[in-house]
Amino acid sequence: MGYVILDFQDEIIDKTKKVLDISEDMIEIEVPSEERGDYALPCYSLARVLKKDPKKIAEELSTKIEMDFGTVESSGPYVNFKIDGSHLARETILSCLEKEESFGELSPKSEKIIVEHTSANPNGPLHVGRARNPIIGDTLARMYEKSGYEVEKQYYVNDIGRQIAILVWGTLNLDEKDLPTAERKKADHNLVRYYQMANKLLEEDESIEEDIQEIIRSMEKGDEDILQHFKNTAQKIMKGIAKSLERLEINLDSYKTESSLIVDGSVEEVIKKVSELKNSGEEDGALYYEKEDNKTFVARKNGTSLYPARDIAYHIWKAERADHLLNVLGEDHKLHGEFVQSVLKDLDVSPIPHIVFHSFVTFEGQEMSTRKGTYVTLDNFMDTAHEKAKEEIKKRKEVSTDELDSISEKIGMGAVRYNIIKVQPQKPIDFVWDDALDFEGNSAPFLQYSHTRANSILRKWGDNRLDIGSSDLQDFEDGEITLMKRISEFPRELRDAVENNSPHTMAKYAHKLAAEFNQFYRDYPVLHSEEKKIKRIAIVKSFKFAMGSVLQTLGIQKPKKM
What ranges make up the beta strands (E) of 197-310? Predict the structure, then answer.
């Protein structure tokens, strides 16, 4: 069984093609405002091809197209299509009951996409300001998976760059007793103290810079001891980063290290290829690539590589292994991202990565920096989310200690994910706890509670089997159709969100869906409506499956109680 809302669109396209005798690529379908219908066909572009007035084309289509389950009418240069509400409700219920929490999934595609996200320097724990990247990246990966793509979620580990070299210098030259006190429970992250102290000393003593450069040279020349120290240092911190991400339901499929690209000769080959491009040149012996008056250096005059060269090698490696590449980067990497795209294009590498840039998160107006130590770690932030969620639950319900911890974790982590993903990536966020944990606002707890409420109704009903036929799915009331229409839109919303790489629109849809269910719950009795009980149980069950699927797409867990 397909999806009624997508089938309706396909029917519009098919019948328009036949009436006008045109190809499908000439037809542009829009989703109009709700009062106009479910789909609209603007006729402006058709007018240029058919040499007719767009209003005349719209009138012709409205009189010649007959939909199997819907109406057609012209409105100026537009043709508006509206699906029959009862048909939509009935088919959506049957689809939800068949697909359960796979509702919304689109047809499998024989295409692979590598989604690279997070990729923070392994010189310390993730801080709140950088938390947006993995949440956006993981949500996009989930969207692509549900859309039928083969998805690999990848972390590019900068285990040899200058930042990690500073950290290595610190571990080789500093005494632990001279460092700030470590946090015992965050042992995987405590190496950051060496990085911060080394940076402080570097600002005071410029001679340390030569030591840093010597470490980099030794590594690139294949010094096994230094190379192994680089790897060991990065791995210790990466272990802590991975643990932090797991609390947010974020798991990586693979890790690719920079060092591997130097060891296998890929970086050396890239430097050679870039040096032959017409946009390349040298300045004081250092190799650069120039685009629109922006010079990006790829190799030092001593022959060692810079990060841009290693990143190009990484993208060539990725391009050989996937049909599509998607990178999630902070807005401070915009020039670098455009440099990568430009060089890959000049090198005739395909696919070129699509990049989603994002602004950063401040916490109560505070900007964060790992180097300066002015940050709130993601771990501490998640601990706070857990405790604040616990406080909110205690206000509403008495639960056992074990249940309280489990529920608080699900609600707290959901609040962190949703409050970040609901904002368009390019817009900045100042995280506010009252907004994130508002059980009645645009928040994860609001979504989770709607799902929990549906589960509660179904538990009280007590019968997990629902034998239902077409005779049970008749005489839908307006509010029932409204909810089922919102549910039916999920696959279309998912498809459009993937096409535009816009995870925030999935969050917006989720809030609308939860709000429609709450309105339905207020307006229509379910368990105490004998004649309509089976139909309304089917509606509640459909919502449960659809919202469960949406929450899974957003990476938000589903508490059994709230």
Answer: 254-257, 280-283, 286-291, 294-299
The gap from C-alpha 141 to its chain's centroid, in whole angstroms, comes to 6
CATH architecture of 4-83: 2-Layer Sandwich (3.30)
The CATH H-level superfamily of 378-554 is Isoleucyl-tRNA Synthetase; Domain 1 (1.10.730.10)
- Confidence (pTM): 0.91
**Mind listing the pLDDT tens digit for each residue in 399-429?**
777 899 999 999 999 999 999 999 999 999 9
Answer left, alpha or beta for residue 492, where phi above 0 means left and psi between -120 and 50 means alpha: alpha
In angstroms, the Cα distances linking 389 to 63, 101, 369, 376, 476 are 57, 26, 27, 18, 38
Q: Could you report the per-residue pLDDT of 118-170, keeping only the tens digit for each? A: 999 888 788 887 889 999 999 999 999 999 999 999 999 988 878 888 988 99
Biggest CA pair distance of the chain: 85
Q: Give Cα separations from 110 to 113, 281, 544 (angstroms).
A: 10, 41, 30
**Cβ neighbourhood burial of 68 (10 Å; 0-12, 13-18, 19+):** exposed
> Distance between CA 81 and CA 12 in Å, rounded?
8
